[in-house]
Amino acid sequence: MTDEPRRTRGVQRGPRSTHVIESVRAAALTELDRVGFARLAMDAVARTAGVSRTTVYRRWPTKTALLATVVEPVLQRYDTDPDTGTARGDLIAALALIRANSALPEGRALIAAAGEPDSQAVVRAANDRTIAMLERLLTRAVDRGEITTDVRTVAYLAMQGTVMWPQIRDTPLDDAELERFARVLLP
Amino acid sequence: MTDEPRRTRGVQRGPRSTHVIESVRAAALTELDRVGFARLAMDAVARTAGVSRTTVYRRWPTKTALLATVVEPVLQRYDTDPDTGTARGDLIAALALIRANSALPEGRALIAAAGEPDSQAVVRAANDRTIAMLERLLTRAVDRGEITTDVRTVAYLAMQGTVMWPQIRDTPLDDAELERFARVLLP
DNA sequence: CGCAATGGCAACACACTGTTGCCATTGTCC
DNA sequence: GGACAATGGCAACAGTGTGTTGCCATTGCG
């Protein structure tokens, strides 16, 4: 063997390099989808990303930090509200959005992390984001006189869980079920 | 040190011994409550139970098997239905039961295991047990003419998630919220 | 009494975790 | 162009947990 000591292996290095963040995020997503959050190994993420373990640990000290990075883009979808013109329409759109997000690998990762003591903060932040959207939506409906505050309270209780739980059970609601649910809440 | 080779340490051994099952179950519960399902270590369970690791592995080849054993007694509570005389009473009782069970260490262990690919079977079995109860309850209400099949469908969709999801978020519903929810479903 | 069932002990190879010290590369600023 | 700071790779580390295995000890039951 010609003892070639060190060489660049097509990897960009030096200041301001961003490929690491992207490839690690992608790798984490892949691994999360493959083995779930509990079995997620920083080691495997690094290998999949084609990056050194050291590097991963430098940017993300914990699995939870990694989860937060992975999940962020999906959470941003909750920042713009559905606005279909009617309360029921908004409601259905919101339910569908929650369903869609929680079906994504990112969403499933969040679900898997829900039971983990040290991921609580991330999971809670994600939920708060969802709930903020529902709050805006329901309050708007009250303002427009489309629902009473009493309905708002119950809807608020029931909406997220009704969508999320079937998702956890891996038997998501279909569109007809979403609509039927919305019809009962907003008769 | 007088090199005392082997001695019984107050431990019952031989055929038909049952202390192992009980102490391991208790230890597993303790550990589950302490570190959650993901970090549950067979090693720690064995140590806490005062039992050899070998022994634990012999009876429970996987963490999931251990979970199933731990959780079984709680699931049995779903096998007898609430029967208060009215549909709404039954409904509230059922919701309260789900809430109570999922607040127990056993229930929290199940929630934590919900995202784990290899625990899916156990989690699903547990949910099916719950759902079976709800099914019986709602069908009985339909038979008695207290609700329509349409309400049954929606209630069926919404009940479990509405209770479980806040539990996952660690902000369980209070009694007033349970009743309000029941009142909307069964006006 | 003898045996089968049960459990303990010790050791093994393996995998993942965090961490650390040292070196290589590269963009940027002077 | 040269120096430097930022960035990342490599290798090694001790520590912990995982399953598994071979061997031995105890004990209830026929």
Quick tags:
homodimer; 187 residues; mainly alpha; Arc Repressor Mutant, subunit A; Tetracycline Repressor, domain 2; 9 helices; 0% strand; disordered N terminus; DNA-binding
User: Quick one: overall form of chain A?
Assistant: elongated
* Helix count, DSSP H or I runs of 4 or more residues of chain A: 9
Distance between the termini of chain A: 78 Å
Oligomer: homodimer
Number of E-type strands of chain A: 0
In N-to-C order, the SSE pattern of chain A is: HHHHHHHHH
Give a quick account of the main beta sheet of chain A: strands, pairing sense, barrel closure.
none
Overall mean confidence score, pLDDT of chain A: 88
| Protein structure class of chain A | mainly alpha
- Detail the poorly predicted runs of chain A: 1-10
> Proportion of β residues of chain A?
under 5%
Tally of discrete structural domains of chain A: 2
Give a topology summary.
2 copies of one chain form a homodimer.
Chain A: H1 19-35, H2 42-49, H3 53-59, H4 63-75, H5 87-103, H6 105-113, H7 120-143, H8 149-168, H9 175-185
Chain A binds a DNA duplex (30 and 30 nucleotides) through helix 2 and helix 3.
